[in-house]
Amino acid sequence: MLKISLFTVLVFLINSVCAQQTPSEELIEKGKKLYDEGQYDQAIQQYRLVLENDSNYNAMMAELAMTYLAKNSYDSAIYVANQGLAVSGADKMHLLRTKGTAYDALGETDKAIATYKMAIESYPYNYLLHFNLGITYYNNGMYKEALACFEQSATGNPYHASSHRMLALLAARQKMYTRALLSLETFLALEPASSRSNPMLVYLENMSGNYLDTSMGEFIEPFIDNSIFEEVDHYFKAKLVLNSRYPSIIDFRADLVKQTQMLVQVLPFDKLGDDFWVKMYFPFFNAVKQGNYLEPLLYTLLTSTGSDAVKDYQSKNEKTLKAFYQTGSNLSYIKQQRMANLDGEMKLYQCRYFDDGQLYSIGNKNDQDAETGPWEYFFSNGALQAKGRYLNGSKDGDWVYYTVDGNLKSTESYTNAGLTGDYTDYYDNGNKRLVAPYLDNQAQGTVRWYDYFGKISSQVDFKDSQRQGKGFNYFMTGQVSESFNYEAGELTGADIHFFSTGDTSSVYNYEAGQLQGPSRNYFMNGQIASFGNYKDGNQDGEWLEYYSNGKLKARATYTDGEVTGKYTSYYHNGKPESVRLFNAEGQPEGQSLYYNIAGELTTEEIYTNGILVKVSSFDKNGKAYAISDSAEGTFDFTTYDTDGKKMNEGSYAQGTPTGQWNAYYKNGQVSQSTNYTDGRLDGEVKHFYPNGKLKDLVTYQEGQPVGQFVQYEINGKVKTEGWYKDGLTDNFWRYYNSKGELTAENYYIEGDLTGYNYEYSASGYLSSKRKNLNGRVLSYIEFNEKGDTTNYTDLQTDSSMIFRGIGNMKNCEITTTAGMHQGSLTWYYPDGTVSSKKMMELGLPEGPYVRYYENGQLARSGGYLNGNQVGKWNYYYESGAKERETYFFEDKKDSISCSYYENGQLEEKESYFDGDLQGDCYQYDDNGELMIKLIYANNELMGYQYNKNGELCDTIPVTGGQFKVEAFFNNGKKSYELDLLNFANEGQLKKYDSKGQIRIVRNYKDDLLTGVSQDYYANGQLKEEIHYVDGLKDGEENQYFENGKLKKQISWKSDAEHGPTKYFDATGKLIKEVDYSNGLFIAVKN
Predict the structure, then answer these.
(1) CA distance 540 to 543
(2) Closest alpha carbon to 888 in 548, 521, 503
(3) CA angle 59, 65, 69 (to 5 degrees)
(4) Quick one: which of 525, 527, 533, 578 has its CA closest to 554?
(5) Which of 343, 473, 860, 1066 lies 20 to 30 Å from 148, alpha-carbon distance?
(6) Where does the signal sequence lie (predicted)?
(7) CB-based contacts of 173: which residues, under 8 Å, 6+ apart?
C-alpha cells in the first residue's frame, strides 16, 4: 500500500501561495480527466490549485480524497476526507463514502462500518452507501447484514449491476439457485461485456449444470426463507431440461440456455408478496416471457463468450435487441414504492425521482390524488431537503427544511388556517437567523433577527404582515444601535442611532416613511458632525458639517436634495478649501474657487449651465495666470500652486474630463497618471514615488477598478497584489514586506473579509490563520514551523483571543464579542507584566492607550477616537524623561511635533498637516545648537538652511539627480550630511554635535535603511547599532552602556524579534535571555 506524508498533504492544502485565477470548476474538471486517465499524481496537483476559500473547495476535496483512494494512499484519503468534512458543502456523502472505503481497505472494519452508518443517517436512500456497507459486511462474514444492504442498494438503483452480482453470490452460496440465476442474469443483462462478465457467466454455467462451484466463495448456512422457490430449485437441481429431448430456443450449447428457458416458464409470476426477489425480478422476467424476448435475453447474457454465433445474432437483430432492452424499465417497479419509517413505524410509501434516477420525494397520496400523511423531499445529492405532514394536500403541523449540505435551514408550523406559530430561519452553524411569529398566515407580533453568533441584531413589531410599532437594531454587544417606529409599514417619528458606548450618533425624524424636519449627526467624542433639515425625504435648507475637532468642514444650501447657491468647504485647520456656486438645478454655475492648506487661492473654475468653460491658476499675489478656456468646455488645461509648481494637467470635452490626466509632486515628477472616458476613469491608473518609480497600478472600467492591482515598494519589490471585481476587493490579496517576503493573505468576497486569512512568519512558514465571515473572526489558529497547531480559539464560543506563538506563553490577550474585538487588548512582557493596553469598540481602538517599559516606566500614552489616533501623544525614555510629543488628527500627524534628548534639550521640531511634513523642520544637537532647518512642502524636502555667522544662510534648494545636503553649526563644524538621488535617500545620513563628534550614521538604498545604523554617546562611545535589510531590522541589534559594555542584544528577522534577546548588567554579565519567534516570546532563561 502506497502512503504519503500527511504533513505533505497539509502543506499543499493550506500553504499554497499560487494565485488561483483559473476558475475552480475548470481546475476540477481537468483533475477529473486526469483521474479517468489514471494519472493520479497529476490529478492531485491540479486539485491542489483550488484554495480552501473557494466555494468549490468541498467538491475538490471529495475528488482529491477519491484520487488518493485510487492510488491506494488510504491514510491520505482519510485525512483529506476529514478535512473536507470539516467544511460545509454538498459533497459530504462523497467524502464519507471515500473515508469508509479507505478504512475498509486498511482492514479497520469497525471504523468503516461506523463511517458508512453515519453517512446513511444523512443520506438514507443513497444506494452506493448501502452497497459499500454491504461489501464490508460481506467481506467480514456478516451475510445477513450484507443482504439487507444489497437489497437497499438494488432498490435505490435497480440498474446498479454490482448490487445484483452480490445478491447472486449470497444466494448461490446458500445453494438457492433460482434466486442466484435471477440476480446473475440481471447482472449480465446490465453488464454483458465488462471484465467481470465472463467469470460470472462461467459461474452461472457451472451452477446451471449443478456443478458445486466455490470459486466465488464457500457455501454458507442458509438464512433466507426459500419456500417460494423450492419447487423451481428442485427442477433446476434435477437438470430435467438438460437432455436432447428438451429443445433449445437458440443454437448455442450451454446448460444455462435450457435452464433459463425452464425458469421463465415455471416461475410463479402470479404469486405476489413481500419477498425481495419477487418484487425485484418478477416484473422484468415476466416481461421477457410475455414479450417473447427470451432469445435476445440469452444472446445478451452470452456476449462475453465472443462467439461468432452471438456476434452474428446481435448484428442482425438490432431492432429486436432494442425492443428487449426496453423491458429493463420493469426493474424500476421496485422503486415506485418502498418501506420506510417516516413517522415512527415502517410503512409502504410511494416514491418519486429526479430525471437522473435520484430520489426526489417519498410519501403517499389519497384517492383524490392529494398528499396525505408524512412526506420527505430530497436534494439531488440525496440529502434531506424537507419533511413534514400533509392533510388533504395542505401542509399540516411542523415542517423542517435543510440545506443541501445537511444543515438545518428553517422550521415552520401549519394549521388549516395556514402558517401559524414561529417561523425560524437558521445559519449553517445552527444559530437562529430569524424568528417570526405567524397567526393564520400573517406575521403577528415581534419579529427578531440574529447575527451569526446568536446575538440579536434587530427586532420589529408586525401586525398583519406589516411593520407596526417600535423597532430596534443592536450592536453585537447587546447595546441598542438604533431605535425607530413604524405605522402601517412606514417609518414614523424619531429614528435615533447610537454609538456602542450608548451615546447618540444621529437623530432623524420620519413622516409616512420620508425624512422630515431637523436631523443631527455626532462624533463619538460628542462633537456635532452635521446638522440640517429634511423635507419630503430630501435635504433642504442650510446644512453644516464639522470635523471631530469642532471646526467647520462645509456649509451648503439644499433644495430637493440638490446643492443650490453657495457651497463652502474648509480644511480642518479652519482655512478655506473651496467656495463653489450652484444653480437651482444643482449644477455648478459661475465661479468655483479652490485653496491650498495655507488658505491661498490656487485655482478658479468657471461653469456655464453645469459645463466647465474656464480654468485659471493664481500666484501668491492673487493674480490669475495659466488660463485655459472654451465656450464649449473643450480644452486642455494646466494648474499651478501659488509657488508656481505644476499641480495638474488634463483635458475636458464639453466640460467632461477626457483623455490622460497627470498630477505632480512639487519636484516636478508625476505623482498620478489617469485616463478618462466620458468623465469616468477608464484604463490604467498609476501612482508614483517622488523619485519617479512606480508605486501602484490598477485598471479602471467605467469608473470602477477591475482586475489586478499591484503596489510596489520604492525598491521595486511587490508590496501588495490583489484583484478587483465590480469595483470591490475580490479573491486573494497578498501582502509582502520590503524584502519581497510574503507576510499575509486576505480573502475577500464582494469587498468583505471572508474565509481563511493567513499570516506568515519571518521564517516564511504559515504562522496563523483566521476564519472570517463578513469581517468577523470565527476562529484563530496558530502553527509552528512543522505545521502543527499550537493554539486554537473558537470565537463562536470563546470570549477572548490569546496569542502564544509556537510557545505556551501568553503574549497578548484580546477580549471579543461575536467575533469582533471588544474590550481590552493587552500585550504582556514575559514576566506577565503589562506591555501595552488599549480598549476596543466594535473592532476599533477607542479611548486611552498606554505602553510601558519592562521596568514599569511609562513609554507612551495617547488616545483613539473611532479607531484613529487623535490629540496629543507622549513618548518617554526608560528613565522617565520625555522623548517626543506628537499631535494627531484622524490618525495622521498634525500640527507641531517635538522630540527631545534625554537631557531635556529640544532635538527636533516638525510641522505636519494631514500626515505630511509642511514648512520648517528644525533639528538640534544635545547642546541646544541648531543643526539644520529642513523645509518641506507636502512631505517633499524642498530645501534647507543652517546657521552661518549667527544668521540662517540663504535657502539651498534640493534638486534632482545626485544631491548632497550639507549643513554646519554656527561654529563652522559640520552638523548634517545626507545623500539623495532623485529626491530619495541614497547613501549616508550623518549627524554631528557642535563639538564635532559624530552622533548618528544611517545607510540608505532606494530610500530604505540598509546595512548598519549607528548611534553614539557624546564621548564617542557606540550607543546602539542595528542591522537593516531593505528597511527592515534583520540581524543583530546591540545596545551599549556609556562605559562600552553590552547592555542588550536583540535578534531580528524581517523586522520581527526572532531568536535570543539577551540582557546584561553594566559589568557585561548576562542576566537574562528571552527567546523570540516571529515577534512573540516563547521562552525565558534567567
Answers:
(1) 8
(2) 548
(3) 145
(4) 578
(5) 343
(6) 1-19
(7) 216, 217, 218, 219, 220
Please, what are the averages of pLDDT over each run of 10 residues along the chain (1086 residues)? 30 39 89 96 95 91 97 97 92 96 97 97 95 97 98 96 98 96 98 97 94 90 96 92 92 94 93 90 96 96 96 96 94 91 92 92 96 96 96 96 96 95 96 97 97 96 96 96 97 97 97 97 96 97 97 98 97 97 96 96 97 97 96 97 96 97 97 97 97 97 96 98 95 96 94 93 94 91 92 89 89 94 96 97 96 97 96 97 97 97 97 97 98 97 97 97 98 98 97 97 98 97 98 98 97 97 96 95 92
Q: Give Dmax (Cα) for the chain.
A: 139
- In sequence order, what are the beta bridge partners of 906? 900
pTM (whole model) above 0.85: yes
Q: Determine the pLDDT at residue 318.
A: 95
Beta bridge partners, 497, equal 482, 506
Q: What are phi and psi of 349, to 5 degrees?
A: -130, 150
Contacts 24+ apart (CB under 8 A), 809-816: 809/1080, 809/1081, 809/1082, 809/1083, 809/1084, 811/1080, 811/1081, 814/840, 815/840, 816/777
Distance between CA atoms of 625 and 339, rounded to whole angstroms?
93
Closest CA to 828 of 466, 614, 600, 1080: 1080
Listed residue (637, 656, 657) closest to 648, CA to CA = 637
Centre a 10 Å sphere on the Cβ of residue 728 and count the other Cβ atoms it contains: 14
C-alpha cell at 18: 499560487
For 487, the 3-state DSSP assignment is strand
pLDDT at 7: 28
pLDDT at position 9 is 33
**Which three cell numbers mark 863?**
488616545
Helix (H) or strand (E) holding 531: strand 528-535
What does the DSSP assignment read for 220-234?
----S--GGGHHHHH
Beta bridge partners of 356: none
CA 731/CA 722 separation, integer angstroms: 7
Residues constituting the chain: 1086
- The amino acid present at 991, given as its one-letter code, is K
If residue 449 lies in a helix (H) or strand (E), which one and from where to where? strand 445-450
- The answer to whether the Cα torsion of 1006, 1008, 1013, 1018 is positive or negative is positive
What is the 8-class DSSP label of residue 894?
-
Domains of the chain and any CATH numbers:
158-335 (no CATH), 797-917 (3.90.930.1), 1021-1085 (2.20.110.10)
Rounded Cα–Cα distance for residues 277 and 268 (Å): 12
Which DSSP symbol is given to 954?
Answer: P
Distance of alpha carbon 292 from alpha carbon 930, whole angstroms: 115
For residue 17, the model assigns a pLDDT of 38
Tell me if 223 sits within 8 A of 144, measured CB to CB.
Answer: yes
Q: Give strand pairing partners of 514.
A: 511
Query: Is there a contact between 338 and 346 (Cβ–Cβ < 8 Å)?
Result: no
